[in-house]
């Protein structure tokens, strides 16, 4: 679900390969840029005073959210409630941290908030909602989850790894979507991947916390660092400063207007694909797209056609219920037309 990095960003990244932000005191300029990034994204998410870091990806970000929640709560047998559609990085985090993960059922692809409420007990430390689900790009009811978290004094992490860099830029457009941000008081942390629609080179993701106390519980001192005794409280030690410098450059190069153009182009192509698929008799589309993901089924000879599509070079994802086509910024109308042509040809071939 990544995309071709911005061409200028590749040049910038290559100029700072030696910078290791794992020793932040040694690279103070890079550290300052990271703080400015978090401030900019915080403003976008309605809370400029948040704290956070540029990290390697959604997996590290989600692990940090659960790590900080476990240490902050000091619960002996911690449990975290996650949607059944949640990303597998949360399973990794639970396994590493000794947290029991409670999978909450979904209704029409989004988590059932009533079931969330029913599963809360004295061991529950955090609830997780997703803004841009992996299977279909749907958005969990974050306002409802925020109310639940507030009422039960729980943390609420929003995994916006996929939707984080597109949802805010579609505000006040015809694609205006439900929000997932710090505007909702129960939201305590958010992860979003800048190497997706942020068009930054891999690795590049962000984790933001509403409260610094959540970070203080995962800090450690390292006396031998050249720049000082306090490293960044991230999961990784060695981390590319180039990712920070490049993301800072992109945020200031594109600005909100530039990212809005990228988001709108993705959604226009997504809806074009959706409309074209509806015209094919042997195709069933799962739902009208919410973000730039289309899910569909082939009603006959499904496995044979999927195999042939992959042999033709189409990198489609297969779920038990559907095929997923993700329309990232590097995908254009010609790609969609080519895919539809191949799909129609293969359906005709295997219907004989």
UniProtKB/TrEMBL annotation:
Root EC class: lyase
GO biological process per UniProt: carboxylic acid metabolic process; coenzyme A biosynthetic process
Keyword Isomerase: no
Keywords noted in UniProt: Decarboxylase, Lyase, Pyridoxal phosphate
PTM-bearing positions, type N6-(pyridoxal phosphate)lysine: 196
Classification via Pfam families: Pyridoxal_deC
Stored InterPro entries: GrpII_AminoAcid_Decarb (IPR050477), MfnA (IPR020931), PyrdxlP-dep_de-COase (IPR002129), PyrdxlP-dep_Trfase (IPR015424), PyrdxlP-dep_Trfase_major (IPR015421), PyrdxlP-dep_Trfase_small (IPR015422)
GO terms assigned for molecular function: aspartate 1-decarboxylase activity; pyridoxal phosphate binding; tyrosine decarboxylase activity
Cofactor needs: pyridoxal 5'-phosphate
UniProt EC number: 4.1.1.25
Family designation: Belongs to the group II decarboxylase family. Sphingosine-1-phosphate lyase subfamily.
PANTHER family, per the entry: PTHR42735, SPHINGOSINE-1-PHOSPHATE LYASE 1
Listed name of the protein: L-tyrosine decarboxylase
Biological source species: uncultured marine thaumarchaeote KM3_46_H07
Lineage: Archaea, Nitrososphaerota, environmental samples
């Amino acid at each position: 679900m990544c995309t071709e990095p911005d061409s200028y960003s590749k040049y910038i990244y290559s100029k700072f390969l030696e910078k290791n932000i794992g020793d932040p005191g040694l690279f103070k300029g890079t550290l300052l840029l990271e703080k400015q990034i978090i401030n900019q994204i915080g403003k976008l998410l309605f809370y400029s005073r948040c704290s956070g870091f540029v990290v390697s990806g959604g997996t590290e970000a989600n692990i940090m959210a659960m790590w900080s929640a476990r240490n902050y709560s000091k619960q002996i047998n911690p449990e975290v409630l996650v949607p059944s559609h949640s990303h597998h990085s949360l399973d990794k985090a639970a396994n590493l941290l000794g947290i029991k993960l409670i999978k909450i059922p979904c209704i029409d692809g989004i988590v059932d908030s009533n079931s969330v409420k029913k599963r809360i007990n004295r061991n529950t430390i955090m609830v997780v909602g997703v803004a841009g689900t992996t299977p279909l790009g749907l958005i969990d009811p974050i306002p409802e989850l925020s109310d639940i978290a507030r009422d039960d004094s729980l943390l609420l992490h929003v995994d916006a790894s996929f939707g984080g860099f597109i949802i805010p830029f579609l505000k006040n457009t015809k694609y205006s979507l439900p929000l997932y941000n710090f505007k909702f008081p129960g939201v305590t942390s958010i992860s979003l991947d800048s190497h997706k629609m942020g068009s930054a080179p891999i690795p590049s993701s962000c984790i933001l916390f509403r409260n610094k106390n959540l970070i203080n519980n995962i800090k450690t001192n390292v006396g031998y660092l050249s720049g000082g005794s306090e490293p960044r409280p991230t999961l990784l030690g060695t981390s590319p400063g180039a990712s920070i410098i490049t993301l800072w450059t992109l945020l200031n190069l594109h600005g909100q207007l530039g990212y809005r153009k990228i988001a709108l182009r993705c959604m226009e192509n997504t809806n074009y694909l959706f409309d074209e698929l509806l015209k094919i008799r042997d195709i069933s589309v799962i739902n009208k797209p919410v973000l730039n993901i289309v899910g569909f089924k082939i009603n006959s000879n499904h496995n044979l056609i999927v195999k042939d599509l992959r042999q033709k070079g189409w990198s489609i994802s297969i779920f038990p219920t559907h095929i997923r086509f993700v329309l990232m910024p590097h995908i254009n109308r010609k790609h969609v037309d080519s895919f539809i042509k191949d799909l129609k040809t293969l359906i005709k071939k295997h219907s004989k």
